[in-house]
Model the fold of this input.
Amino acid sequence: MALLQNNFPTFLQGFGYTLLSSIIALIGSMILGTGFAIMQILPQKWAQVIGNVYVQVFRNIPLLIITFFFFLVVSKYVKMSGFTSGTVALMLYTSAFIAETVRAGILSVDGGQMEGARANGLSFAQAMQHIILPQAFRIALPSLGNQFINLVKNSSILAFVGGLDLMYQGNMVAANTFDTFSTYIIVAIFYLILTLPLSYYIQHLEHKLKRAL
Amino acid sequence: MVTLGIFSAFTPQNVLYLLGGLGITVGVSVISVILSLIFGSIVGIIQFERLPYFSKFVGTINNIIRNLPLLLIIFFVYFALPKIGIHLPIFWATVIAMSTFESAMLAEIVRGGLESVDNGQFEGARANGLSNMQTMIYIVLPQAYKKMIPPIISQLISLVKDTSLALGIVLSEMTYRGQIVYAQNSTYIVPVLIAITLVYFLLNYGLSLLAKWADHKLA
Amino acid sequence: MEKAKKRQFGIIATIVLAAAIVLGLMWATATANKNAEHQDTLARVEKLGRIVWGVKADTRLFGLMDTKTGVPKGFDIDIAKALTVQISKQTGVPMSAEFVPVSTASKMQLLKNTNIDGSVSTMTITPEREKIIDFTNQYFDAGQSILVKKDSGINSIKDMNSSKYTVIVVVGTTAATETAKFAPKAKLLAVQDYATGMQALKSGQGQAMSTDNAILYGFATENPDYHIAGGTFTHGPYGIAFDNNQKPMIKETNAALATIKENGIYNQLIKKWFSNVPGLDWRSLEAK
Done:
């Protein structure tokens, strides 16, 4: 308890950076992920190839390596801090998973709806935006929520590049106080404050969706 | 000069060293996936059975573990458990941390798989005189596992990727060994990072193709 | 199972599991308290016939991994080997030396947790650390410096006292705390290890990397565009570290250290590792 009191501002700062990184990466990966999901189902072959390659590459390599790549290599040419490198890596990595989720959502929307919308004079983009995507998102919502939880957990990668997040600050406190046990328990509680309510909300959504189907 | 760096990073001894790291990565992943299949199944069945109080209790613990970063669990097992007298060598510390985390993930998959098995099958088996336990082992679980093969392979992919996090406790796996190689000469960084990325990609992409194939074959 | 039976089973299982968790926690607390008690390192290494040394694997000259053998090479490793031989002679118990690569961030934890018996890992003796662990007499004379790009215009740590500068340090080193005293306005970027630190410096994440001069000389040898600016601004000799209150082990190790300094082994090792480092007056490092 004394440990928490003495280091409260440190933990709180870490919590703030974890939250900030998660939100930025979430927004970015939603936009990118949706974009690549649409590319994968476009009729144009080249778009499908780009979408597929992107998703396969980022799904199959460790987040840590993407992070190191931005922190140590890309930053030679484009200046970016550890926080930025980690957040960008997190965004790209997560967007591949979101693309998969959104694509599955789009495919589960009845194909006739697209044809119907096109027959009624809507363009492909309009049909996508107004008819297909809203339904796809509703179906994909629980999976998207799980991706967001993963994203919050994965933001601990920032600790490797001096990203000032919760895990980084926890390591600092542990290194200074040598009370590893209590420090990591406190860090765990801070993470759970973010992830646990979300997780229960998603379970609730899943039940609702199941009943609706 | 740059091209020279690209080739000189891959001396036979450095390549062997990196491949040894790959061996450790795969070893940790495979042992962890087996252990987590066992524990994840137990926890998944408990949750599926909806035993009063017990299933909720176990489910809550499972949810807590599932919602923590794996990196934190790794640090906890290696740096905090010795405080209560549990000393693990680095390899097994990683295996235990990853199995704990993955068991929680797999428990959810097992529960989902069980729930997807048709209810009539239970009743039919019971009508044929099988006990609850027998029904579970001979009828329900095999069907559930069949459906679960693709998600289990994706968990294996996650494990292969996540083993890189054990870099934080200096496990001598592939990413750490990559760092050691570019500590020899800092011009090696780009070729080494690209090479290990490629190895991870090929391994995991292969696994994901296997999952797809299994999905088709079993569907 | 009928409903009533299921309910009964559920309740009993919950109680058993909850009891197991509570008992487990109590046992854990008891063990934690017991572990906080004294464990004699010398008695342990004599019983097991081996000394497990924590060493660096990413630090040129002191401990750098040899990818062929999987064992690090460097001054620290050679010192640990020589000490193990000497301690075996003194105690009459044959002991082997084992090496575990540690990161700067992890070595103190590993010592406290007895994952390693001792640590020869470029560790500066400080009063704060002495409260928590034990040090031998110094085995290497070092001081903190900064490594900067030759054309950076930075001539000393004092030049960096501005919020536009970032100094790269490694988590858990003395440099992390000392830099803040000499350049309080500069930002700090703490990374996990020296290899990442050097890469971060080269990619412009910071304008200087700060740590002990001998480690920086290792990097300067390999990267001719970089040099050490302004000499040392602290004095912080390295010691060999053990867990707290290990008087017998410290005594043996100090005696062994004195012996290898007298019989010339120490100076041979200094010559072996430091005589080829440009800009370093290696003769000044020798034992007198």
User: Anything to note?
Assistant: Chain A touches chain C at residues 68, 71-73, 75-76, 79, 81-82, 160-162, 168, 171-172, 174-175, 178, 180-181 (CB under 8 Å). The first helix of chain A runs from residue 2 to 6. The two ends of chain A are 48 Å apart (CA to CA). The domain at 17-167 of chain A is CATH 1.10.3720.10 (MetI-like fold).
